[in-house]
Structures are given as structure tokens and as C-alpha cells.
Amino acid sequence: MPNSTTEVSVSVPLLSSLRPATNSSSQVAIVGSNVCPIESLDYEIAENDFFKQDWRARSKVQIFQYVFMKWMLCFFIGIIVSLIGFTNNLAVENLAGVKFVITSNMMLAGRFTMGFLVFTVTNLVLTLFASAITAFVAPAAAGSGIPEVKAYLNGVDAPEIFSFRTLLVKIVGNISAVSGSLLIGKAGPMVHTGACVASILGQGGSKRYGLTWRWLRYFNNDRDRRDLVTCGSAAGIAASFRAPVGGVLFALEEMSSWWRSALLWRIFFSTAVVAIVLRALIDVCLSGKCGLFGKGGLIMFDVYSEDSSYHLGDVLSVLLLGVVGGILGSFYNFLLEKVLRAYNFIYEKGVAWKIVLACAISIFTSCLLFGLPFLAPCQPCPVGALEQCPTIGRSGNFKKYQCPPGHYNDLASLIFNTNDDAIKNLFSKNTDFEFHYLSVLVFFVTCFFLSILSYGIVAPAGLFVPVIVTGASYGRFVGMLLGSNSNLNHGLFAVLGAASFLGGSMRMTVSLCVILLELTNNLLLLPMMMLVLLISKTVADAFNANIYNLIMKIKGFPYLFNHVEPYMRQLTVGDVVTGPLQVFNGIEKVETIVHVLKSTNHNGFPVVDGPPHAAAPVLHGLILRAHILTLLKKRVFLSSPVAFDSKALALFKADEFAKKGSGRGDRIEDVELSEEELNMYLDLHPFSNASPYTVLETMSLAKALVLFREVGLRHLLVTPKTSDRPPLVGILTRHDFMPEHILGLRPSLSRSRWKRLRIRLPFLAYID
Amino acid sequence: MPNSTTEVSVSVPLLSSLRPATNSSSQVAIVGSNVCPIESLDYEIAENDFFKQDWRARSKVQIFQYVFMKWMLCFFIGIIVSLIGFTNNLAVENLAGVKFVITSNMMLAGRFTMGFLVFTVTNLVLTLFASAITAFVAPAAAGSGIPEVKAYLNGVDAPEIFSFRTLLVKIVGNISAVSGSLLIGKAGPMVHTGACVASILGQGGSKRYGLTWRWLRYFNNDRDRRDLVTCGSAAGIAASFRAPVGGVLFALEEMSSWWRSALLWRIFFSTAVVAIVLRALIDVCLSGKCGLFGKGGLIMFDVYSEDSSYHLGDVLSVLLLGVVGGILGSFYNFLLEKVLRAYNFIYEKGVAWKIVLACAISIFTSCLLFGLPFLAPCQPCPVGALEQCPTIGRSGNFKKYQCPPGHYNDLASLIFNTNDDAIKNLFSKNTDFEFHYLSVLVFFVTCFFLSILSYGIVAPAGLFVPVIVTGASYGRFVGMLLGSNSNLNHGLFAVLGAASFLGGSMRMTVSLCVILLELTNNLLLLPMMMLVLLISKTVADAFNANIYNLIMKIKGFPYLFNHVEPYMRQLTVGDVVTGPLQVFNGIEKVETIVHVLKSTNHNGFPVVDGPPHAAAPVLHGLILRAHILTLLKKRVFLSSPVAFDSKALALFKADEFAKKGSGRGDRIEDVELSEEELNMYLDLHPFSNASPYTVLETMSLAKALVLFREVGLRHLLVTPKTSDRPPLVGILTRHDFMPEHILGLRPSLSRSRWKRLRIRLPFLAYID
């Protein structure tokens, strides 16, 4: 059935109605430097007669099974993610701790060259290991993983992101890379890990290893997996920052594209489990059984002060902090995007280059971390310090480094330390005179650029901790500059600086606020924190997008934003829908089906009843490619074009139509049929979704996008306005809503004032 | 055009396809005891040619105006709501404080009868005033207002809920009723107040008093008002509990039916403003200028303890607390529903009865509050108490009451006090031996029943504080019973008991958790709090619904839940859509329009182009009653049936089509047209929404409901499956999705197993 394209819109035509005949948008996007096929997910319930019959047959016990298992899965996600999070921290603290202790001991003995060599070689080996397993075993584990999970929750299924291999590499690689003193974080990879765990649990274990359970069969669909993955990502944040409420809000504000209250309670349950398990594990560690993990462990930055005194007068310095933090944050995003594009260019040359780059950055980092403190002047130990000064033999506040006895190197306390300890030092109060302002400045500049260079390497690397450490040093520096003009202590400035830099680069508000409150354990900071986050986000939004959205764009994910471009209001869906359209008859010859499946890569086909079965062509519904493949593999064919009887239908089981795990779908090439079978028929009626969402071709693109996104569709059928035409104009998919696709079809729009309206005013992104 | 109803569904018919000819659902619902018309709200963007032209003409400056004003409105909502909240607290503390001081002084002088009289008469006068202004001036201000606001955000516009009168009565009446020692709260009314303020600001001030501003004209639509009202309700909670993050989460979890990230930031901004303003005002009060408001004021229950030590072993007692709290909470809901239904029955007899009931409850409350402490034995003052014991002349912990010197009455400390002080006493730590367990039990029972009796009176009355105080006494009582079997102190038990009772009756999780954390200012409680809330909510959900949902049901609001009833999957929209359908031609005679508007009460009419303007009837779009009325009032008619030319269109202004405030819409009865005008024509094309959402008649009801709710529609057009029929089968509105309506149309469903499946299993409400 050819696509009918000459209908003139009834309304005043804004644009010429010439339509290109083929879809120029590509289903292929660039992931990293590899060209990979990206699948869309389908959150619509396929309501075909066969499934309806299955639902009717479901007993109360089965409904109970479903609900019970969904809660149990949330419980297990909480348990597993918290255990992984704890192990991560334990491993990093011990690996990096041993390394720092050995190096420090060598330096105490005056063997600086040897110390440098041990430090650099250890880091190099750890980085080499992390980047090698990432590059060769699971390239999808590189980076933070938050953009991938965010895209997944929007309906974009990048290959391999939730495989078991990716999970393993993500955990081991991240421990190794963070222990190797690279300026990268653990939180992003924990989010990805949590999502992985959730997805693997939801798929009912691994079929490859025979680990499946019948009770889990109900979760083999995209809707339930989406819920579980949202749960997993919240548990990931909860486990990395011990911030259960922050985790829930993070999943809500940043990750998810769809939300409902029932999901809120499930996620809250998962993060509650995380919080309780972590509390129990820390009880164990408090008795000193966790090596160098120590007492502080997971409440990283406890800055509670009985009366953190601040008044309305301090609002001005907070405003300043927010504005500058916003500008710095968006500059950070800008630089990071450029660096990532440059890295992608290098990575196209081969895997070896990826590893070479990682090693080069490791060596560069080691040199900076080891060398810079030598430039700092030694400070005399403060009189009456609570801690031993200088600290010897363990990671502490007052590093001796090259200094004479009775002195400490303040820059080394920050830079020659794990990131967590550096943040703890920066956040702590009553340390206003411990650091020289030049040391803090040097530290800030180092972190700023080093973290931008480090993020893009082929290893699991997060952004949260680098941004926090950079922001904290920036905040403390501002606090030092203001000096006695402000009543706030420098630790508070560091916390607010971290908030402003996070707000400027990640652009979250509520979730960052709660995460920082849970981290610092000081609720009295709340109003200041809210203010600084809102200001820095607003300022930064005037320049560029959220860091994760930038990375998603580089990776080429077709993410559907809920922001409607102005020109979409002026276009109708008829203007963008493209052909040629492939439809099936209700009872179709097997040969035709196989031919169509082989010659197209569409994932859904409209089923139309034409003569002689109906007077005029009538749209029956939409059948999914996966379901047709299941039918073909089952080989229950009809010798004549009649409907399936109930005996034939009884041969099918609902489980067989369950959605396969990512990348494990059937392929038409694997189905081999005999000549005889090809001449038989299939009745598609009972297996097609008889309630597909439809829009009239004159519907504006903006409103169709609202429907598509809010309901979470993969296919949206376009029906004609007049009744004298075939019952279907075309099918809209995710790609048809992408600005690139639309502007490609209508180049004139790029030059029109609708395009020009898109320049970024501050706040403009908030319109609808 | 008659409704075509005989089409037989293509799929296996589950139900007979006989359809009643008329819509039996009523657009009238019972509000309180009055029969009032309830309007639906419309969140769809009416994309007609006229508006599109207006959008195209908007300049960047106007877009900036819109965005800037929306943020400014959020700012003003924050400022105004926090000022009202502060005033509320100040007034209540001073009014009730003076009353308690005077009564206590009389009792110190031994004049018990006089004290009783003063106490009772003061309370009676305050209650009488509150109930009289509510009953006569603004009946919509009665109760907590949360159900009304929640229904509004779902799209149900009850009359007068956001009028200026209601706002005034809500504030004054609540201050008066709470000061009158009734066991009611301030938080619910604050939510309603916040929503009122937001709605009034969004309507651009009051036209009646000439207070309007051109910049505010863009907010005259339901979408922007919905956003602002959400903001206002969050600000209300933030102001009553000084819980800015809790307010955001409350709006998200309990109030709103639609959500997007941009809204999150705006709401967060409003509550941040609230937090900062309250902080500043409390700074002022700390210097002692606020009378009896005192130092504690708004951080009601500060129970921070340096190390609130609890371990995994305490989880068992928390489990117990949660389970019993859930059962108690659902029992509370059950009783409250019964009492409200009984009150409604009494209220039907007339306004006088409402006031009599309020006065009776006030006298009963006074008797209980004054009388019960006499039953409690006097306790000797503890040695080394930090406070003066017994307290004389001010509201304090150790009430002397009738006791001899050196003794105090522990029940009086709880019961003969403001609710806020009672909660503070219950939550405080290191008071394990201050209260006798019988006193706490008596207090619990009194609060439980008194709050159920008090809520339904005709005065602004909240539920949060009564539930917290009841739950806190329950928790403390459990803590006393467990005694040395638990390591937790009784103050902690009171906090967890309040959480469990809140969870059992209000069924929120994340928001209650954060509100309680912000109230008690103790983040270390987090994991316990999460656990107890989840358990009590789960247990209570097995018995009945959320208290607000029960109240909404009593009030008859057609609230659309996002829970799909099982039988909705088996019905198609064709099965429930009812006629007769009224359609207009694209160019219609004025007389016909007036006649149709007068004879029906539909709010939207499909516009169909028939011969001779089109070959076959074609659906052009949907025109709203309000827009037709504007057209009629404008009296720009055509002498012959032709389209409007651009000169005629230039006579209309977009502002004229803006949505009027609630209850202020035009009525067809007010439009008077001459005979000549009635014979002229109107071109409806440019004013009809050419992109209405449509579904095929074979779409399942469940999926149509998803579309209806997620996109926020008022009208959903149903198109026929086959092309040989008129272009429209009918229109679905909110009422067509109500279970009562569907079961009324299909009585057989009530008896079918689809209905039976609806029995409440625990967790079952969570299925999608």
C-alpha cells in the first residue's frame, strides 16, 4: 500500500506539503566510536486477543506471585547493590590506602625517587588493567553509565549495556581505576551497576547458565524492566552516598522519563533496604575489621555543627558562589564535551590507542599528584591540633611529605590522598587556617582539568566525586578570598561550593540538595543549599545543557525530551511521516511475511483486513516483528486462508511471546522454512495489538509528541482524515520526532524564524 | 448525527454490544451536603488556527515575560504563603497561650470552677466564630482542603474552592478553631491556603477589584494554573512544618496527578523562598518580640541527639510498631469515614445544625481536656530537672494543675496544652520517667476519638497534627510497654509511632519520611523511619484507602486514578461511549448554535465539515463551549455561509478566549441576540482545536484511560473503525471512565469475575 501524501492540510498551510518519499533518518547511531544498532523499547501493552485470553486465565495466585515477586526483586536489588557498594568502598580504601602508606613510608625514609616510581607504576598497572578489561571484554562498561541508563529509561536500548559481562567489568574496572588515583568517581558506575543488577534479576537470571525461575516469567516485558532499572539506579546512588532519599529523588529527577506513585514506593523500599544493610555493615566495620576502611567509611563528610550560624546577611556571598559556580559548571561541561569529541576521534584509530591514552593520563596524573606538593611551602604544625602532626604511616590530615619535623605540607593533604579524604578535609570545619589559599587554588585548577581529561578514558569512571572535589576546593577558595567579610566558616563554603558546581554541571536541584544534606548530615544548611543550587543551575542553563544530555548527544542516543520545539506546533504528523509503509493482511501468506521481514527492518507492521474479508480495508491492529518471528518458529501454519480455531490457538503459550533480553531477539535469518510451509497461511489477528494508539494525520507534531512520550510508545499509527483513503497513512517512531530528522526533511525550517526562536534564553528551557 | 451503535467488535466479544442510548452518568456530584455542579479542567492545548496565529506573532519579549512572570509568581507564592504560615502560628500560639496562662493562674489560685468556665467559654466563642464564618461566608473553606486541591490537580474543579472569600475564611477560621483547643491541625488548611494564593495570583489578581496586570494574561489557562496550584500546595506544607524538601515531595507524591521536571524546580524554588523567609522571621522572634510564640516556634520538635544509638536488633520492635500502626491507621480511616457520612446526614437538615454540632463538640472537648487530668495521680517532681517544676504562669512541661507543691500532673502536661507542645513533650528524649504509662494511654485514646469527631465540623480543620499527636502517644505507649526490651528511648518511639500512624492513615512514604526528618531534625533516624512507614502503609493498604481518597469519595469528586480496573481491559471505548452526540458544521447558523448550547450542557462540540463543503463528512476538530460563547458575545457574524476572511479574524483578540476563573465562565442565558443575528452564520474553523486526541472505537478502555489521564484531557474523541460511517462515534469525558458509570451501563460486570478480582489483596493496588 503506497503512502498517500498529497492530502492538503485543511488549516492554513505554513509549509509546502511536498514530502520526500523515503525516510532519511537512520536507525543507526554512533555509540562511542562504534556504529551499533540501537533498539527502541516498547512500553505499550500489546493488547491482542491471545494475551487477553491469557490474562483472563490468570488466577489470583498468579497475580499474587507477580506482585510478591516484584517486591522481592526490589528487596534483592537493595541487598545486592548495597553489598556491591560496600565492597567497592572497602576495596578502594584498602588498595589505595596500602599504596599511599607504602609511598609515604618511603618518603619518610627520604627515598623520594623510589616512592615516585612505586606510586607511578602501581597507578599505571591498575589503570592498564582497568582499561584493558574494559576495552577488550566489555566496551559498554566505559564511562559513568548514567547517560546509558537514562537513555534506557527513555526507551533507547543500547547494545550490551545490561549484560553480565558489563556488570563484572564495571565493578572490577572501577575499583581498579579509582585505586589507581585517577580523578574519577565511583557513584556513576554504581548507578550503572545497580541498573545492571536490576535488569539481570528482572530477566529471570541468565538463560545461558540455566538460572531461571518460573515465577519470574511475568517480568519479561519492557514495562516491568523499566521499573526495576529505575529501582536499581536509585539503589546505586543510595549505596554510593548512603543517601536513600537522595537516591529516590535522583532517579525521579534525573534518570526517569516516566513515573508513577507505585514506583515511588518500590524505589523507596529498595533504598531503605540499602540504608539498613549499609548501617549493619558499618556496625561491623566500627569494630575495626575492615582494614584501612576505618570508621568514617561511608558517611563521607560529616560536617554537623551544633549551631551552624548564618543569617540573612550571608545570602549575598551565597549568591556570588552560585553565580560563579554556575558559570564554572557550564564551562566544565563545554570543555568536557570538546575533550570527549577529541577522544572519540582518537579512539576511531583502534583499541590500542584507547589503552595508550589511558596509560598516558595515568602517568600524567601520577606526576602531578606527586610533583605538585613539592611546590607548596611547608606549614608549621598548629599548636594544640587534635590529630598527630605531621601524620605518619596512615592517611591523615597533616601530611609530612618533604617537610622538616613539626611541619606539614597542606597541598599534599589535599592532593596526595584519596578523593574522599580530600573532600573530607575540605568540608571539615575549624580548619580555616590549616590550608594556604594558594594550595587550595592549585588544587582546584588541577582537579578541574585533570577530571575533564580523565573522564573519557576507556574505564568505568564517574563524574560525581570529581565534580564535588573541584567544587569544594572552589568554594573554599572563595571563602578564603572573602575572609572576614563573611560569617560562614570555610568548611561551609566548601559544601556550598560543591553544591554550586554540581548544580552548574549536573543541573539537578532537589536530588542534589538531599544527597548533599544526607552526605554532610546537616539539615540546617537546607535553605542555603537550595538557594545556591537553584542559582547555579539557572545561570548554567543559559549557556549549555546538562552534562549527561551532552554525553547522550555525543553517543547519538535518540532521546525524547519533553520539551517541544516551537516549529513542531506548526507541523502536522502528516508532514513528517514517511514511507513506504508495509502492511499485512489479517490472514497472510507465509512467503509474503518472510519476504517482508527480510527486506525491511521495521519492528511493527499494521494488520489490515481487506477484501474479501471486509467490505473496505479496515485497520485491525499492529503486530510486532518479535511476535511474527515467534509464530514462524512455532510453524503452526494454515493450509488455507482461514482464521485459527481455538485448538490451534491452544498450541501457543504466552511465555513464548515474552520480550527477549536485550540483544537476544530472534532474527529472521535464523528461521528456515520449507517450500511447502512458505505456501501456507498465518492468521495474524489473535496476535496483533488491536488497541494501538492512533492520531489523525492533521494532528500537530507537538501534540503527537506529548502522546508518544507520556504514554511511552514505540509505534504511533497515523490514520487519514478523509474516509475515501486507505485506513493508514503511516507509522511514527521515535526517530520521526528527532529534530535532526525533521529538519532534514524540511531544511527550510532551519532558516525560518521557528528555528531562530530556539536560541537559549535563561529559563527558556522551562517552557513546557 | 445519531450515534452509530450497532458495530460489532472485530475481536472475540466478551460482552453483549447493546448500548444504552443516553448517558446515565451525572455531571452533578455531592459536595459536602450541597448539590453543586463540578467542572472538569482541560489541560490539552487547544491548537486552533487562531491561537497558532497568535503564537507565531509572539515576540521574544513576550516569551521572556511569560517565563519571568511564572518564576516571579512562584517567588510571590513563597513569600505570601510563608508570611501567612508564620502569622498563623504566631496568632495561635498567642491566643491559645494567653488562654492557658489565664486559666492556669486561676487554678493556681484555687478557683477551679472559674477556670473551667473561662476555658470552656473562650473555646466555645472561638469555635462559634470559626464555624459561623465558615457556614455563612465560605462553606468551601470547611475541612482540610487537601482533598479539594488534590481533586483540582486531577482535573476536577469544585466551585468556590479558590475564591478570595474562601482564602480569608480559611485563614481566620483556622486560627480561631485551633486556638479554641479543638483537636484539629493547621497543615491541611495551610495547603489549601497556599493553593488559593497561587490560584488567585495566577488569575492575575481580582477583576472585581480592578487588580489585574497585562503581564499575567498568559496564565489564564488550566495548565499554568495547575502548575501554580501545585507550587502553592507544596509551599503550604513547607510553611506549616518548615520542611521545604518535604513540601516538594508531598506535592509530588500525594497531590499532583501530572508532573514534569521543570515543575519540580519551580516548586523547589517556592519552598526555598518559604524556608528562607521563615528563617528570617524566626531570627526576629528569637529576640523575644513575638509574645508567647517563644523560641521553639516553628521547628516544632527538635529531637536531635548526638548519637541516637540503635542497631539491627531494634528492627523487631520497629516492625511491631509499623504493623500495629498500620492497623490503627486504617481503623482510624474507617471510623472517620463513618463519622463524616453521619455528619453529612445531620448537615442536610440545615445550617443551624452545623453550628450546633460544632459548639457541642467544642464543649465536649473542653470538658475532656479540663476534666481528665483530675483523674491522673500527681507525680513528684524529678530531682535535678532542668526546667522549673511545677511550671507556673507559662505553658511548660510540668503542669501543676491540682497537685500539691513539688508535684506535677503528667496528663495535664500532655492534654491541657496546645497540640504542638504536646507533640514536643512526647518527642523529647531523656523524659522516659516523666510520664506514667496510664496517662499516655488515656491521652492516646482521647486524641484518637476526639480527632475523629472534630475533623468533620464546619470549620477549617487539618488532619496532620491530630494524626501526629495520636501516633506519638501510641508510639510512646508501645515504648513503655516494651520497657527494657528495647534500647530505643521513648522519644524515639514517639517519633516512630507518629510515622507509623501517619503511614497507616495518609499512606505516603517518601514525603512523610522527609517531613518527619525535617521536623525532628535528625537524619540518623532515616532507615528506621523508612522501614516503619513502608510497613504501616502496606499493612493499612490491605484494609482500605488513603484518608484523602476516602474523603474525596464522600464528596463525590470524579477523581481519575491511574489504577486500571481489570474489567476495563475487556471493554472497548465503543462499549461505554454514549449518545446522543451533538456536532456542528464548520460554518454553522447562529440559531442552531444557540439552540444546541441551550439544550445541552456539553462543554465541547465536534466540528464536522459535510457536503457541500467536503465530499464526505470530515472531522475538522473540537470547539469548546467557552470559545463559542466568546464568539457569540463578540457578535461578528457572517451574512452568508462562507469562511471568515483575515479582516474579520483581526477583530478577535487571543485574550478574549482565555479561560475564565473558576465559576466565572459565561453562560448562554446571558447572550441575547436579535432575530436578524440568529439568521446569520459563524465560521467555527479558525476557533476549533484541529488536533484533538482521538481513539478508535475498538481501543480498549484501559488504554484509553491511560491516554486520558497521562495527557490530561477533558474530551477524547472516538472515531469509527470502518470508513463507511460518520467520522465520529462519540466523545469520552472523565465521567465515562468512572467505575460507577461503567458498572451502571453494564450491571453484569458487577457480578462477573472481573469485578470479583477487585477484592483487596495486600499490595494489589500496586499493579499498574
From TrEMBL, chains A, B:
GO molecular function, one term: voltage-gated chloride channel activity
The entry's keywords: CBS domain, Chloride, Chloride channel, Ion channel, Ion transport, Membrane, Repeat, Transmembrane, Transmembrane helix, Transport, Voltage-gated channel
A UniProt-annotated Pfam family: Voltage_CLC
PANTHER family documented for this protein: CHLORIDE CHANNEL PROTEIN CLC FAMILY MEMBER, CHLORIDE CHANNEL-LIKE PROTEIN CLC-G-RELATED
Domain CBS: 687-748
UniProt cross-references to Gene3D superfamilies, sorted A to Z: CBS-domain, Clc chloride channel
Residues passing through the membrane, by range: 63-84, 116-142, 162-184, 263-282, 315-335, 355-376, 435-457, 463-482, 494-517, 523-543
Protein name: Chloride channel protein
Keyword DNA-binding carried by entry: no
